[in-house]
Amino acid sequence: MVDSSVENIDVRPVNKKENRALFEKREKIQPKKARGNFRRLKWIIMGITLGIYYITPWIRWDRGESGPDQAVLVDFARERFYFFFIELWPQEIYYITGLLILAAISLFLVTSLFGRAWCGYSCPQTVWTDLFIFVERMVEGDRNARLRLDKAPMSISKLSKRVLKHSIWLVIGVLTGGAWVFYFADAPTLLRELFTFEAPVIAYSSVAALTATTYVFGGLMREQVCTYMCPWPRIQGAMVDEDTLTVTYHGARGEPRGPHKKGEPWTDRGHCIDCNQCVAVCPMGIDIRDGLQLECITCALCIDACDDVMDKIDLPRGLISYDTHVGQFDSNPERKLNIRFIRPRTIAYGLILALVGAVMLFTLLNRSILDVNVIRDRNPLFVTLSDGSIRNGYTVKILNKIHETRRFLIEVEGLKGVQAWLESGPPLGLPMLVTVPADSLSSYKLYVSVPAENLDGKSSDIDIVVTDFESSERDLQASSFKGPDK
Amino acid sequence: MSNKVEKDEITGTDTTGHEWDGIKELDNPMPRWWLWTMYASIVWAIGYWIVMPAWPLVTSYTSGFIGYSSRGSLEQELAKATEAHAQDRAALVALELSEVKNNDQLYQFALRGGKSAFAVNCSQCHGSGAQGAPGFPNLNDDDWLWGGNMDAIYETIKYGIRSDHEDTRIGEMPAFLTDEMLTKDQINDVSEYVLSLSEDRKDMAAVDRGQEVYAENCAACHGDNAKGGREFGAPDLTDAIWFYGKDKDIILKTISRGRGNVMPAWVDRLDETTIRQLALYVHSLGGGE
Ligand code: SF4
Ligand code: SF4
Question: Domains plus CATH for chain A?
Fold first, then answer.
């Protein structure tokens, strides 16, 4: 008698190398529901990631009168990026670059330690596909019921199940696209506008585009996105080495595989009873017993499935488990996992991470609330005035990055006999005091003249100093003063 | 290249019969997504031909269903922009030029408009940075032939100098040699004198003779002190700025042959708003009075 507690599943791993012909129409994978620790962990992570995605735009953050009260906002109209206490101007885009570097290196580090943890648990493609499969299971039943439904002729009940499934998918798609646009405008306002048809066209088209991609990627394409479209499976090979944790079938323990009857001895055979449970749950349509494969996203569902089988046939768990490359050659069922966390690779990634993180933190903490830019006129390079003195023109741009109006004093230093005045400001001889409104940039035309005899060549050094009138914060911009040949 | 279709041993696929240096091409089907993308592109292209201007005809072209043209859309956008600025344009015409500066938003509007109008209409002679050239005044400096306040600049732009407009201002540098008003020697003397006003000259005798010639022939326009005269557009001869260049040969030529450059009148070519924008822009270049 075959071990009755374990169902032997007739399942074809459609993405197994030998089964995959070029130009063949895709065979739909119908993953069976898995139960176990990793499945639970995946539900939790799905809850957290979806929660973050949907709730973030609704978090409020007080920025006073002149700023929006949305905690996370990419404001294209005002050219600002708001993230809780951080507020970035377009020219500070390098913070975003830094964040991307941090994200990339973290991904490298995690990958070198735990393999494709990103793919298996938190990649949007995985999370949404999981959600879509969950919906499918709710509507059409688990694997066997779905296979039956696929073969069944069209009927009212089949049609209604299909319509219901696709409708729910579309609703999820709309909600996904709908949440996305809230990151780019005041969420409550935009929500109201979306329903009253007053929202900008771009909002509707973004929702439509993301609805389509969510529906197509999560509902229809699923594993093909990972296998054919995503570059990451190809890149990650470079981070994985023999000490990396991956989902591993312990071949030395499992082989030779074969059906097993209750009560039969386990001598002269492996622990794998060839029940194919691990294949049935795999959302990628592969057989983990073939070894590490590009398609495997390390979702660990096959671990859950096989552990379940091992429990039923009274063998130790872990025939499939997270293990390093060497693990598959170890036939000891009680094998102790021994991970080398500290390796040259992880040290390198860790150091880069720490360095970039420290630089980012330092610049962020020391981020000035005043930014001054001086652009010297190039056309004309200089102007000769009627008394023979030489005049240069400068555009002085002052960025006031705080939510308060500030006054600044503009001064010119570095050459003898300098006279300076603002085109729009008070006449020559008075201090150049300007008012820059809160959270904005003001631009001033500055004219500087110097007697020709005080210049000693075509180009002299000159400093333009901007000082906060109240706090005395200073910003000195070195520039040059051009004159005729001597 | 042979044309024999054969079965490839390894893949079991037919070859196309094409062979290059022993490399045979397999006759694999096109990926489906690729084919569908191509069909979709064909459908799109046909739709595009119908909707948009597409096919050249002998003297014209198919203009398409919606009658789009890039020129037309530019015109629409320009009209929209003018429309959007209607209020500013009206305000600019209504105000005294000197009052515009009190309204920063309006002033900035005028400067930006003036800058682009300058690039289109004025830069050909005055240079893109208004830096001028010999015979074409530098508009950045503080030396003005016909006055450098906003209203004077406005008038110069509007009616021109020695232009064909009846309200234009005229002043002419006579051709003293050509018209036989002065001899060559006298012209040499007077140019020595003019140069002596801004630098030391060696031939003081010539300078002294030149001063007399100056008083009789030049002072009427350029003034007794040679500081120039704005009613005739006569340049200041004592300062560091030289209209045609600070070079004795050039000065000799100016006195001998005369000068009479033309600044066109823009009143018939530009609208009132643009002329005002130009006046404010030129005034803002640093030398405005
Ligand atoms: S590895 Fe485990 S789940 Fe897979 S066939 Fe063998 S016993 Fe079954
Ligand atoms: S082989 Fe296992 S870990 Fe890999 S994708 Fe399939 S179920 Fe997930």
Answer: 37-236 (no CATH), 245-288+295-329 (no CATH), 370-482 (2.60.40.10)
